[in-house]
Design goal:
Arc Repressor Mutant, subunit A, single chain, mainly alpha, about 0% strand
């Protein structure tokens, strides 16, 4: 599944990012998507896939986007969830939660609602009205 259109931040902050920064963020996004698809949500798994250590990830995200890895990963997961809810009519909320690395649907729903201010079912239902 392709998620290029939901790469976090790059469209908003593209003018201030170098080509190297954009490449790093794109690679990081790909790794986060792949890791969450497999149900792993451990920062060490992500950094191992990137071939860097946690300190390097923290430093790069702080320098490029002024965010922590935890914040960036949450944003990526939520953007992926919203994308799935808006673009796949028959997808179940439990499947979205699973694809975004959440083992418990309730935890996913709570995080999604906190992040977007609306429930996953509301986003899905809004899509279905169109």
């Amino acid at each position: 599944m392709q998620y290029e259109e939901i790469d976090a931040f790059t469209s908003q902050e593209a003018t201030s990012l170098t080509a190297d920064d954009k490449a790093f963020l794109s690679q990081l996004a790909s790794v986060i998507y792949a890791v969450t698809e497999r149900g792993f949500m451990d920062i060490n798994t992500i950094t191992e896939q990137l071939g860097i250590n946690v300190s390097t990830l923290r430093r790069r995200l702080a320098q490029t986007l002024s965010v922590t890895p935890k914040t960036y990963i949450l944003r990526m997961r939520m953007q992926k969830a919203k994308y799935l809810l808006q673009n796949y009519r028959d997808i179940a909320i439990a499947d979205v939660a699973d694809k975004c690395g959440y083992q418990q649907v309730q935890n996913f729903s709570r995080a999604f609602t906190r992040f977007y201010g609306m429930k996953p079912t509301e986003v899905k239902n809004e899509r279905m009205k169109k």
